[in-house]
Request: fold
Amino acid sequence: MSVDRDAPSEAPASSPFSTQAKVLRQLLERAGLSQRAAARQFKVDERTLRYWCAGQLEPPSWVFRALSPKLTHKENLQRMIESNEKTIAALQDGRITDLGFGPGPADRQSVPNQIDWLQKRNEEHRSLLRLEDAFERKQEAYYQLHRQWLPHGNGLPTEESISAVDAAEAEFRAAQAEVERIRKEIAAGKR
Reply:
C-alpha cells in the first residue's frame, strides 16, 4: 500500500471545485484523517473521496459540517437569526397578531415586547458569531507565530506575527466583553 494513496491529493487550479477541495483537504489534515479513514467514516467509496479532494467532484455540504462542528454551530446561529428576522417582520406587518400567551387575547404590549426580545436575541447571536470569528483569527495568529519557532521556522517571530497575535487577542477580548454585556442586558430583562 502506498502512503501517497492516503494523502489528500492536490486539486488543479483550473478545477471548478478547487477551492472546496482545498478546504476539504485542510479539514481532513486538521482532523488527522487520511482519505481512506474519512471515506470509511463517511460511508462513501474511497474513489469518491479522492475525487472530492482532487476537485473533480463537488463535495456535499454535510462533509464540511461533519469535519467542522464550529461550522455547524455558526450555521445554526445564522438560521436562528434569519428565523427571528422573519418572525419580527411578520409581527411588524401584522401577519402575527396573537402570540398565544395564556387563554385570553394578547394585550397591546405583547407584540412590541416580543419584537424587542427577538431583536435582543439576534443581537446576542450576532455577537456570538463575531466571537467565533475572533476566536478563529486568534487561533490562526497563534498558529502562524508558533510555526516560526518550530524546527522548520527560523526560530525568531517577526514583528508582524507578534502584532497579529496582539490584535487578534484584543479583538477576541472585545468580542467576549460584548457577548457578556448583551447577556447581562437580556438577563436583566428577565425574558
Observations:
- Residues 1-8 have pLDDT under 50 and may be disordered.
- The chain is about 70% helix and 0% strand.
- Residues 110-149 form the longest helix (40 residues).
- The chain has two domains: 3-66, 69-189.
